[in-house]
UniProtKB/TrEMBL annotation:
This is N-carbamoyl-L-amino-acid hydrolase. Transmembrane segments: none annotated. Keywords: Hydrolase. It holds the Pfam family Peptidase_M20. GO terms for molecular function: N-carbamoyl-L-amino-acid hydrolase activity. The keyword tRNA processing does not apply. Its EC number is 3.5.1.87. The keyword Hydrolase applies. InterPro entries: Amidase_Cbmase, Bact_exopeptidase_dim_dom, Peptidase_M20. It is an enzyme of class 3 (hydrolase). PANTHER family: ALLANTOATE AMIDOHYDROLASE (PTHR32494:SF5), ALLANTOATE DEIMINASE-RELATED (PTHR32494). Belongs to the peptidase M20 family.
Length: 417
């Protein structure tokens, strides 16, 4: 077997070709799932996979799948996504797919005895133009027919209509689900989308966990009154109560919160919303993120009790509504060790870190040993036209992925599938 090395030029060429689908004249990329640009990129990817010697297809959820090895064998899946946010960049998702393709191509070219199944997958709608992580959830059985049936795009277009536009059918969506036995393990290379690796001068981040997200709405109701004639101690001021609760919970988080936890109030409204009226109503939406389920529960409980207290203090009614949650997911310790071993051998400086953003990997983490590799994002910028990772970082990340793939194949499949 010849030595297996990433072909840098080919990898960067493919990445820049993929960036041309949905490229905007002023910079940035618009390539949401089920758009014409996404369909064209998928078609191009199928052709690139086929050219590389993979058996390529688009499944019933719009996932592009390229496979090496017999159909019945469990696969090491190397995936990410090729859809973008509106005005997104050329690296988020794309890097993981193109690097996985390059790895498969190198293995084929060097005559590596894979002897087993390897899949390169571009998951559909990771960014949630219609339904967040639609493709990886559909494939791993984490999507209900009801959820898919009611999903809509930002302009209100039903998912079913969007699928139809690109020749897919909602009626067949469930066919994208595969038996858990179809998967052996999962790897994803991704840009960090944050500033840590660059700031610390590190080559690689090994993801320890993907942090969970929990969203809740708090609606306070008191009484709207004249802002000049109502004494301060006779008010039932929902706006003030919301501010007090928010300030209190941020203070508590600063003092006692887990360092990797995140607390955000991204929406806050007062009713009626006039300078001369004591607000009789307030609505706040909080998002809690944490690497451990326990930290997430604690932070959510802290927000709940801050609002309970503020409501009681100002004689208000309080309604809490849970708007959705994704549990934190954990990468396999064996996979983390294996990637760390690869980094040491390749002489790359690395750290084990949580991922603050959600990834398709979380849908595989409960099913099979899963690992994620991060490379630095310039300035920590992502979901933006200026998203950039240095060519060296891209190539280094792909080299880590390639070596990890080889070791996963050797380690888990030594004695056959
Ligand atoms: Zn992504």
């Amino acid at each position: 077997m010849r030595s297996a090395k990433i072909n840098c030029e080919r990898l960067l060429d493919d990445l820049s070709k993929l960036a041309s689908f949905g490229a905007l004249p002023a910079g940035g990329i618009d390539r949401p799932a089920f758009s014409a640009a996404h369909a064209q990129a998928s078609e191009w990817l199928v052709a690139r996979m086929t050219h590389a010697g993979l058996r390529a297809r688009v499944d019933d959820a719009g996932n592009v799948i390229g496979r090496l090895g017999p159909d019945e064998w469990p696969a090491l899946v190397c995936g990410s996504h090729i859809d973008t946010v509106p005005g997104g960049g050329a690296f988020d998702g794309s890097l993981g797919v193109i690097a996985a393709l390059e790895c498969a191509r190198v293995l084929v070219e060097t005559g590596a005895d894979i002897g087993k199944a390897l899949e390169v997958v571009a998951f559909c709608d990771e960014e949630g133009a219609y339904l967040s992580m639609l493709g990886s959830r559909a494939m791993t059985g984490g999507l209900s027919a009801e959820e898919a049936g009611t999903a809509k795009g930002r302009d209100g277009e039903p998912l079913a209509g969007a699928m139809q536009r690109v020749g897919l059918s909602m009626a067949n969506l469930a066919r994208a689900e595969r038996r858990p036995r179809a998967f052996d393990s999962y790897l994803e290379l991704h840009i960090e989308q944050g500033p840590v690796l660059e700031a610390k001068g590190l080559d690689v981040g090994i993801v320890g966990s993907i942090i969970g997200v929990d969203i809740a709405e708090y609606v306070l109701k008191g009484q709207s009154r004249h802002a000049g004639t109502t004494p301060m101690d006779e008010r039932r001021d929902a706006g003030r109560a919301a501010c007090e609760a928010i300030t209190a919970v941020f203070a508590a988080q600063e003092q006692r919160g887990a360092p990797e936890s995140r607390l955000t109030f991204g929406a806050l409204e007062f009713v009626p919303g006039a300078s001369n009226v004591v607000p009789g109503g307030a609505r706040a939406v909080s998002e809690v993120r944490a690497a451990r389920a326990q930290d997430m529960r604690q932070l959510r409980a802290a927000v709940d009790s801050a609002f309970d207290l503020a409501a009681a203090r100002h004689a208000l009614t309080l309604e809490k509504r849970h708007l959705g949650a994704d549990k934190p997911s954990h990468m396999a310790p064996d996979m983390i060790d294996l990637i760390a071993g690869v980094c040491s051998e390749l002489d790359f400086k690395f750290t084990v870190m949580p991922s603050g953003a959600s990834h398709d990997a979380s849908n595989f983490a409960e099913l099979v040993p899963t690992g994620m590799i991060f490379v630095a994002s310039r300035g920590g910028v992502s979901h933006h036209p200026e998203e950039f990772s240095e060519p060296r970082a891209v190539v280094n990340g792909a080299a880590v992925l390639l070596e990890t793939i080889k070791r996963v194949i050797a380690a888990r499949w030594k004695d056959g599938p």
